[in-house]
Specification:
With about 190 residues, the chain is an all-alpha fold. Helix content is about 75%, strand content about 0%.
Length: about 190
């Protein structure tokens, strides 16, 4: 009889896999090198994950959980700061040198999903992020009909700006654009919440 996988061990393993993918990328993922890096056998991985697709799905869900938990823990998320301030804080945090690997991994996932290479594996991190940010907007009085539209626009602009700075390295120029976006977000929230 097969042993049931321990959820705590599985979560610890997933955190290590997320860190591995942030360091090496997703497109070249192979089970044997991953297992070697983790100091485990491929048998341990198949004990926790039926196959590579399940491992990828679980890993992306874990990345999403970590990302959302970090966002919810931001100072001001509870309503004490404006959405624009949270956008700026998120920007600074994600572009810190030690956080760039996760930002790059998220953009790699976006690119693979856009290219049809992650069919069935697009995580909530991508598919539901507008709804996630819309909940922040609703908490600040933005009506439902406006919250999702504003969230979609902000997420798309933010992603584009982050890709710009990651590909060009022109931080000063892109920072100015980000600050203008944050100001616009605050104006939109204020107008929609009236």
């Amino acid at each position: 009889m097969a042993r049931t996988a321990d959820p705590a061990r599985r979560d610890e393993l997933l955190d290590r896999i997320v860190d591995y993918l942030a360091e090496r990328g997703l497109s070249t993922l192979s089970m044997r090198p991953l297992a070697e890096h983790l100091g485990k056998s491929t048998r341990v991985l198949t004990h926790h994950f039926e196959d590579k697709e399940e491992l990828l799905s679980a890993t992306m869900r874990r990345l999403d959980e970590r990302h959302r938990a970090w966002l919810r823990a931001l100072p001001g998320w509870d309503g004490s700061d404006s959405v624009g301030t949270i956008v700026r804080r998120t920007w600074e945090f994600q572009l810190r040198e030690d956080n760039l690997p996760i930002a790059r991994l998220i953009h790699e996932i976006e690119g693979l999903a856009a290219g049809g290479r992650l069919t069935g594996l697009v995580p909530e991190l991508l598919a539901d992020r507008s709804a996630f940010v819309a909940s922040l907007l609703r908490d600040r009085g933005v009506p439902e009909r406006d919250a999702l539209r504003i969230s979609t626009l902000v997420n798309s602009a933010y992603t584009g700006l982050q890709l710009d700075v990651l590909t060009t390295g022109e931080r000063e120029r892109v920072d100015e654009a980000l600050h203008q976006l944050a100001d616009l977000v605050d104006e939109w929230v204020e107008a929609a919440a009236r």
